[in-house]
Amino acid sequence: MLRRRQRAPGERPHYIAMIGVLVLIGLLAAAGSTLESADPVPREAPAPPEAEGELEGATLTLALGEEPASLDPAFAVDRAAANVVGNLFDPLVRLGPELEPEPALAREWRVSEDGLTVTFLLRPEARWSNGEPVVASDFVAAWLRVLSPELESPHASRLHGIRGAAAYSRCTERCDELEEAVGVRARGDHRLVVRLTVPQPWFVRLTALPPFLPVHARTVSRHGEDWATPGTIVTNGPFVLGGRTESAVSLVRNPRFRAAARVSLARVEAVVIPDGRARVQAFDQGTVLALDGSPLPEPDLPGLRERLEFEAYPSLQATTFAFNLAGITDVRQRRAMSLAVDREALVENETGGGEAPATRFLPEGMPYEGRSAPDSPWAPEGRDLEAARAELEAAGAVKRRVTLLHVDDPDSRAVALGLAAAWEELGLETVVRSQPAESFLDFEGPLSRDSVDLYQQDLDPWIPDPWPTLALWSCAAASNKANFCSAAYDGVLAEARAAESTLVRSHLYARAEELLTGEGGALPLLPVYRPTYTTLESLQVQDTFAVNPLGQIDLSAVALD
């Protein structure tokens, strides 16, 4: 059985090149715009600490699938850490159930007509847990800290869409000068102005992720590596850190949070339980009221799905196999091979980790404003052998012996063998090969005609917008090794990046996906399945507990009935 591990937002897959997107962004030239200015708003004196006492409200007990590696936003790379810091700190925006940006510490934001300048207007009532006001310069200091070459944050590249950020984070000399050139400025206490390298419609959404969170600069400076520990850490989110051990994290409602009156929970007691079956047992025994969406035990999933407490949430992850168009040249053969795959049976009988059939390129959780993402007619949930045979018969050039390359692990091999069995019913012979994850397709340029005919392509985008994932198939993308290059496709992506209207942009995203996997699309890839976040949730919290497609859990929205 497969145990497809769900990666944390921001964790880099070994063999999928979101690097291609970063290269594309870095290569595009863009003109800047003048930073806005604002009169400074005087800081208010810190409020006196409130009297200690028993907080009113309920306690949520939550099981985490792994120990948070760090509570420093600059190093919160695993999903458990991202969820804890996401509730300790207040971001500029929060992402809703469908990844729509919602005002958080920023009450509103404005994007310039050329898309190169984003201005966030901060709430003047925002406070750190020590009573000091949260101001725009706190964000400037936090972002420059993440980019600092001395810190070596694994998140630094996430900020490279900001003008001058990449040069500063990679500097070896003139670093002070390059730091000054980074395009983020505080214009007064409550206005944060960001200048981008190119228009990035997704940038506002990015500010909900850990590396964009503010930190209390004086606390970091005073305590160094130990600043994010109980009794020392200063936060500005709905919760403060009550305590932490290797196996547990305690969060306490922050009375100085700007929206504390809307936070129902008094405490969150999170216990680390790595074993999936042990997490289920803890839930059944009443030790915890909810699980965090880490993978559940595969043999138990059929029974768990029948329970009222079971929930499965879409993610941004997906597993596809890309065709080498120099080897399988006829789109009708590619259609036939995709139609022959019974995705529903594959996820029920082979993967067994709560996955769902993938019927399009973009993962289901990817946000599409104003419309639904289009399903591919060539990727049904169940196979259509009759249509597959018809397409293969109509193909002008059929390659009867194909080679498939998968990542060298038992999980991926099980999927590869399932595909080979499906294509055997079309009279195709499949040679299954593997390559270690660390060196998977580790070369420049597209595949040769005599190379493999299909290769595994796992998607785990950290940018919650379709454009960067769709850009993996642009002609210039380093990750595009399939000999697919379409001027029409690249043109649609360019229009989408420049579009001011979210509805227009969504229409263009749909058009791009149609060029890939639609009725008349080139079909350079074969969607297979998509992982989900599977949880058990007590009926007491089920109406308010949710995991969004990035794996985030907003504990400030949870209430116990």
List keywords for this structure.
alpha+beta; D-Maltodextrin-Binding Protein, domain 2; Dipeptide-binding Protein, domain 3; six-stranded mixed sheet; five-stranded mixed sheet; 16 helices; 18% strand; disordered N terminus
CATH architecture of the largest domain: Roll
Largest sheet: 6 strands, mixed
Number of domains: 3
| Helical content class | 25-40%
Return residue spans where pLDDT drops below 50 for at least 5 consecutive residues: 1-52
> Overall mean pLDDT score?
88
Please compute the radius of gyration using only Cα atoms: 24 Å
Structural account:
The chain has 561 residues and is an alpha+beta fold. The protein has 3 domains: 57-89 and 216-311 and 535-561, D-Maltodextrin-Binding Protein, domain 2 (3-Layer(aba) Sandwich); 91-125 and 135-213, Dipeptide-binding Protein, domain 1 (Alpha-Beta Complex), CATH 3.90.76.10; 318-530, Dipeptide-binding Protein, domain 3. Helices cover 25% and strands 18% of the residues. It contains 16 helices and 19 strands. The chain has a 6-stranded mixed sheet with strand order 14-18-13-17-15-16. It has a 5-stranded mixed sheet with strand order 8-9-10-1-11, sandwiched between helices. A 4-stranded antiparallel sheet has the order 4-5-7-6, with helices on one face. Strand 6 (184-186) and strand 7 form a beta hairpin. Helix 10 runs antiparallel to helix 12. The longest helix is centred in the last third of the chain and has 16 residues, at 502-517. It starts with 18 loop residues before the first helix and ends in a 25-residue tail after the last strand.
